[in-house]
Design a protein that fits this description.
- By secondary structure, this protein is of the alpha/beta class.
- Helix content is 34%, strand content 14%.
- It has ten helices and 13 strands.
- Strands 2-8-7-6-5-3-4 form a seven-stranded mixed sheet, sandwiched between helices. A four-stranded antiparallel sheet has the order 9-10-13-12, with helices on one face.
- Strand 9 and strand 10 form a beta hairpin.
- The longest helix is centred in the last third of the chain and has 25 residues.
- It is globular.
- The structure holds pyridoxal-5'-phosphate.
- The site of pyridoxal-5'-phosphate has 13 residues, from helix 3.
Length: 361
């Protein structure tokens, strides 16, 4: 093969390997279960707030502190507003947190099987990292994150983990916090609303100044299209995060995001109702596909991680795709036998079960 020559200026360009988001199919009438979106519309309060927005409101810059939205979140979590930080999806918040807190030059730790954006940010920001293998049951091994005294620059993991959906207990996370008072520990709670109540460690940000918890509106609040994420942590952590934010882009939150995000947070009843529907569909769907012949670890998220015992995951992924059903398949070591299937509406999941039964028959 002929080697492609780089132009002189290209030598000076930063090259990096980007994250690959799940496919957004163009055709209509597909069952889209590949990016963990919520199948239900956002709260009717959001729709109402959207109707009331006027083009005139877009003339001025938004409030750089996103005070209304931050206050709604502060009320919701019973913390002072000074301990909330919002951004353009939790991806933005996490990227900013990596930039702010993982600057020691020492390696950060995260699991080998986890949110695939972590290594991308680490590479982009030239943060050294080491991955710690999950155990044979896909659990994060607490011991791997202890006794690191002074050797590491930070820890980050999602809880529940992605793409496994497996929850780590508060007790185990407490052990990690107790063992690591000298670094920032980030717990990415993108899916925590779908877990058993009392699983979050958000309240521990009161006691652990070095704990940052991130959340998103994309999954449990049905607002992936708006791009809102946030972090809760100590005032000190927020101070440092804001220093970076105001050195980079002061207006991360646009006016519609602030207004509509606030409306979403204020409607707790609708939020609880839709989350509960997804949890109950998840439990029904897990039972159904286990009966058909899948290994499925217990999920605490709005997706299941499922290994068909009678066909390769890749073949099933392809067959489903041709039938207009989109799952997520990761062609990676250790998880190449699994599919990540987002929980849609009960009707969608019934159609998926029928499709799989027919395929197997
Ligand atoms: C979806 C997801 C995010 C990002 O969410 P956005 O708020 O949409 O940027 C972060 N972490 C994990 C583990 C996720 O699955």
């Amino acid at each position: 093969m002929e080697e492609k020559l780089e132009a002189a200026w290209e030598v000076n360009v930063r090259k990096t390997v980007p994250y690959v988001p799940g496919e957004q199919p163009k055709q209509e009438n597909v069952i889209k279960l590949n990016t963990n979106e919520n199948p239900y519309p956002p709260s009717p309060e959001v729709a109402e707030a959207l109707r009331k927005l006027t083009a005139g409101e877009l003339r001025k810059y938004p409030d750089p502190a996103a005070s209304k939205l931050n206050q709604a979140l502060a009320d919701y979590h019973h913390v002072p507003v000074s301990r909330i930080f919002t951004g353009v999806g939790s991806d933005d918040v996490l990227a900013m947190a990596f930039m702010t807190f993982f600057h020691s030059g020492r390696k950060i730790l995260f699991p080998d099987i986890t949110y695939s954006f972590y290594p991308v940010w680490a590479n982009l920001m030239e943060i050294p990292f080491e991955t710690k293998p999950l155990d044979a049951k896909f659990q994060i091994r607490t011991e791997d994150y202890l006794q690191q005294n002074g050797r590491i620059g930070g820890i980050v993991f999602p809880n529940p983990n992605a793409p496994t959906g497996i929850l780590k207990s508060r007790e185990e996370i407490l052990r990690i916090l107790e063992g690591n008072p000298d670094i920032v520990v980030i717990v990415d709670e993108a899916y925590i609303d779908f877990a058993e109540e009392g699983s979050s460690v958000l309240d521990l940000t009161d006691q652990y100044e070095n704990l940052l918890v991130t959340r998103t509106f994309s999954k449990s609040r049905s607002l992936a299209g708006l791009r809102i994420g946030y972090a809760v942590g100590s005032e000190k952590l927020m101070g440092y995060l804001n220093q970076i934010k105001y050195s980079y882009n002061s207006y991360t939150m646009n006016t519609p995001s602030i207004v509509l995000g606030t409306a979403s947070v204020r409607d707790e009843a609708y939020f609880r109702e839709t989350v509960e529907k997804i949890r109950s569909t998840r439990s029904w769907f897990t039972d159904e596909i286990r009966k058909i012949g899948f290994s499925v670890p217990e999920s605490s998220a709005n997706f299941v991680f499922a290994k068909p015992d009678w066909m390769t995951a890749r073949e099933l992924f392809q067959n489903a795709r041709e039938a207009g059903i989109f799952f997520r398949y990761f062609d990676q070591p250790r998880i190449g036998d699994y599919l990540r299937i987002t929980i849609g509406t009960r009707e969608e999941m019934e159609r998926v079960v029928d499709f799989i039964k027919n395929l197997k028959a």
